[in-house]
Every structure is written in C-alpha cells, then in structure tokens.
Design a protein that fits this description.
Elements: H1 6-9, H2 18-39, H3 46-53, H4 57-63, H5 67-86, H6 95-112, H7 114-124, H8 132-155, H9 165-186, H10 192-204
Length: 210
C-alpha cells in the first residue's frame, strides 16, 4: 500500500491552493494581454508570457496545455470579467440607471484592459482568424447582456418605431467598444465621466420624440 501523507489522512486538499492558482492565472492574463496588445497573438511566445508574468515557463504549461490554449482561456476569462461588470446593470431599477451602469461597466473595463479591446477588435474582424470562433461565441454572450437592457428600453417605449432590439444591441455594443478604443488610443486625456456621457447622449438620441 502506498504511504498516505498526513494531509491526505486529515482530508486536506492536496495540490495548488485555489487562491494561488487564481492569482497565477490573473498574472498570466495580464502578461498575455500586454504582449498580445503590443504585437499580436501570433508573434508572442510562451517564454515571453512567462517572463512578463514573473513565473517559470513550466507554470504556464502547468495551467495551460499550450500557448493557444492559454490565449483561448484568457479570452474567455476576459469576457467573463467584462460580463460580470455588465450584469451589474441588471440590478438597477430604472432604465436610465441601468443604461448608465452598462456603459460605465464597458468603458471602465476597457480603460483597465485596453489591450483586451484591441484584441477583440483585431480578432473579431480578422477572417479567418485563429480565435475567431471562440470570440464569436464570447461576443454573443456580451451582446446578450446588452440586449437585455435594450429590451428594457423597448418595453418602456424608449426605442423609435421600427428599430429592432437585436440591431440596436449589436450597434450599442459596437459603439461602446469603438468609443472605448478611440478614447484609450487617441484621447487618453478625457476622463470616464466625459466619455460615458458622450455614449449616453447617443443612446438618448434613439428615444422617440416626446
């Protein structure tokens, strides 16, 4: 019979601690985004990601089977982070507060992770792209959250006649994404409140005349 460690006898969980694993994955996420944002996913190596994250190369392979698996997982992780911020809008009572929360969540996320926005744009519109399929599904996840808030506007009679909820949702997602990138790349001196108000003015312009 194999010897049993004290940790196993007492029922403790062996292996890496969940908190430490999550922290390591976040380091890899930040490092990969920085490098991918600078040079594109294809030219970045595992060695560079490990060095940027301050971990051993073996740590990357311990958490992910390959660089492609790392990028794929980190794309999903990034969208999960973004989705969590956008879902805060679902707890708002009024449509105005919900839309403000939605825009704040999107712009705030891309202000914190500008490279992720660049990656989304470059890969979503790259046909064919290595991660186009994954990003297409992830885009649908985000747009579905946006659609929920646009549906609230429609239910409240706040969309002009003939404007489809699906079209308006995709347009709003695209607007927020492009505005966020334009802000970070060309107008970094503007603050979040100013950029948010610009987007909300566009949204308010969709309302039918009083």
């Amino acid at each position: 019979m194999d010897p049993v460690s004290p940790q196993t006898r007492t029922g403790a969980v062996t292996g890496p601690r969940p908190g430490r694993t999550a922290a390591t994955k976040q380091k890899l996420f930040d490092a990969a985004l920085k490098l991918v944002g600078e040079r594109g996913a294809a030219s970045v190596t595992v060695d560079e990601i490990a060095a940027e994250a301050g971990v051993a190369k073996g740590t990357v392979y311990y958490n992910f089977a390959s660089k492609d698996a790392l990028v794929d997982a980190l794309l999903r992780h990034g969208v999960d982070l973004l989705a969590a911020r956008l879902r805060v809008a679902e707890d708002e009572d009024g449509t105005e507060a919900a839309m403000t929360s939605l825009v704040d969540g999107m712009l705030g996320f891309f202000a914190e992770y500008p490279a992720f926005g660049q990656l989304l744009v470059s890969e979503l519109w790259r046909t064919p792209g290595q991660w186009h399929g994954t990003l297409g599904l992830l885009r649908d996840d985000i747009v579905s959250i946006v659609r929920g808030q646009v549906q609230r506007l429609a239910d409240a009679g706040r969309l002009p006649e003939g404007v489809q909820v699906g079209t308006a949702s995709a347009a709003l997602f695209g607007t927020m994404l492009v505005v966020a990138l334009d802000w970070q790349v060309f107008q970094p001196e503007r603050d979040l409140a100013e950029v948010r108000e610009s987007v909300l003015l566009l949204v308010r312009g969709l309302r039918p005349p009083a």
